[in-house]
Amino acid sequence: MSPDSHEDPDITHLRQAIDLAARARTRGDHPFGSLLVAPDGSVVAEAMNSVDTAGDPTGHAETNVVRAVGHLDLDTRAELTLYTSTEPCAMCAGAI
After folding, report:
1. Which residues 6+ apart lie within 8 Å of 76 measured at CB?
2. Which residues are catalytic?
3. CB-CB contact of 29 with 51 (8 Å)
4. In the chain, is it the N or the C terminus that has fewer CB atoms within a 10 Å radius of its CB?
5. For 40-60, how does the pLDDT look when each residue is reduced to its tens digit (9 = 90+)?
6. Can you tell me whether residue 81 is helix, strand or coil?
């Protein structure tokens, strides 16, 4: 699905999260995707669910994307916006 160039950026990023979820499902995992976006609209990190493919029960898309930016300083991470394909579970909400 290609986003409309006049589409709201939030909708564009939500569509990207849903696309990641579809890709996770295609590879045999649960359909969840997540991405982190900088204030300028650039995608800093993206992740898919990896519970089935990696066997880690904490490998949800949201925790995977949070791990991906762990090297960034706290101020930089605080400026990022998280987009997910679904509402995060309690574990992911705590990690976020």
Report:
1. none
2. 62
3. yes
4. N
5. 999 999 999 999 888 789 999
6. strand
The residue to which tokens 């939500």 are assigned: 14
State the amino acid at position 57 in one-letter form. P
DSSP assignment of 1-15: -PPPTTS-HHHHHHH
Q: Count the neighbouring beta carbons within 10 Å of the beta carbon of residue 28.
A: 8
CB 88 within 8 A of CB 62: yes
| C-alpha span between 9 and 95 (Å, rounded) | 25
In this structure, what token pair is assigned to residue 16?
Answer: 């990207």
CB 50 within 8 A of CB 64: yes
Distance separating alpha carbons of residues 69 and 46, to the nearest angstrom:
10
- pTM metric for this prediction: 0.87
